[in-house]
Amino acid sequence: MRYLRLFGTYLRLSMLNEMQYRANLFLQLFTSVLSLGNGLAGLALVFYHTQSLAGWGPTELLVVVAVYTLIAGWIRAMVQPNMWRIMEGIQEGALDHTLTKPEDAQVLVSMTNFELWKLVDVLLGSGLLVYSVARLGAQIGLVEALLFALMLTCGGLILYSLWLAVTTTSFWVVRMWAIFEFFDRMYQAGRYPVGIYPSWLRLILTFIVPVAFAVTAPAEALTARLTPQTLALAVGLTVFALAGSRLFWKFGLRHYSGASA
Amino acid sequence: MKQLINATIAQTKITILATFQYRVQEGIQLLGLLTESVIYLVVWTTIARASGGEVGGYTEGEFASYFIAWTFVRNATTGWSPWGMEWRIRRGEFNALLLRPVHPYWTDMGDMLGGKAIQTITLIPTMALLVLAFRPEFTLVPWSLIALIPALLLAFLLRYTLMYALAVTAFWTTRVTALFEMWYAVEFFTSGRVAPLSVLPAWAQSIAGVLPFQWMFYFPLELLLGRLTQQQALQGFLMQGLWLIGIIVLMRVIWRAAIRQYGAVGG
What we know:
Chain A is mostly helical.
């Protein structure tokens, strides 16, 4: 409850900060629309040649792209800026200040910095999601909606944990922008359902860098593909990722000797 | 000219040494390159399989070789980031560079070439792994491979110079991002990055025909794969040369105007 209030405070601060740069909203809108258009054009090119990709039809892949865009927006707005702040803090010593605060360090560093204009992607993704689900004409009852929400939450938490783990490595390795590029590139794999990849790659994209899995599972829930096994796997992976990244973060902190004077 | 080349080579050496210190980062960059190519590779081989073995003149195995060779050509021809330029101008770091007797165009080029030299060393064994994983079909054509060397060099110069010319517009507007996003969107489809140009619909192919992007990527890539006749190769070199002249003129015009415009930021 206290964390929720803290979250609200930081969110308000970010909002005040972003309102100073209103022109950035249009720049972001432009970039987002262009990048979504690019993705859709790529999809159009694929379906110019074939009717289904590994069993997914055009509209179903539209659902995947929608979930991909939605999660990407959430990560870029809510997770990435915080991770950037952590890495910067490790390099320049600002993290020391955070560590002295009387709250849990992981919670604090995960919610102090947001780039709210990037939520444009969440809006675009949701819009596309509604459109594609409507076009699919599928029966989305309460159960499907709840399963989708659960899978989406799992996907978001898995990706957050992955980000935190990658960021934690900067206690040892400094030179951070490469990590951001790496993550963006790996995340691209989620543009397509994880099932299209050959099995060895599918294992990597599910268990080691579960980017594709995080996007595919929610899309499966909406296209009547979700098996009980996938459901169990998603929940299991989420618990494991959250616990693992937290342990790794604690381990990193123990190794950290501070950078400020 | 000799001095300029010496300065470029000196910067190349500096970057090679600097890059060696950051091997982790190199590995990460390589992984990024691989991810992108493997995604396209998987998608297009899947499509080829689903539509009777061939799409746009490429078989399943040929798509595999296309996207494996893709990593090599992309590594050789790209990498310079316009955001770096915007950042330098905003932070005022450009002032010191302008005071040097050598145009930053040359030292930046050296910086890139140094990075590439290292990346190629790590890329080649990785490509061998991709060959094992995806079983590409390819034939190596000796004359084509020799022609690849000047084609890659020209492709690199073309892209680098055009990027530089556009990045220099950051002197007027400190928001070049929007411009580059548009560039990337167009280049994405018309350079052969997302798929071979022959799989595009006819209207998109004719748009690609009048743009310079295929000469910066698709042309050397097809040479590497030995898919061109000697006549097509000669035509390609001619197009590369013509575009290079045009782009150099553009670069000089923009640069002159930009230097007059430049208001230094910071000290």
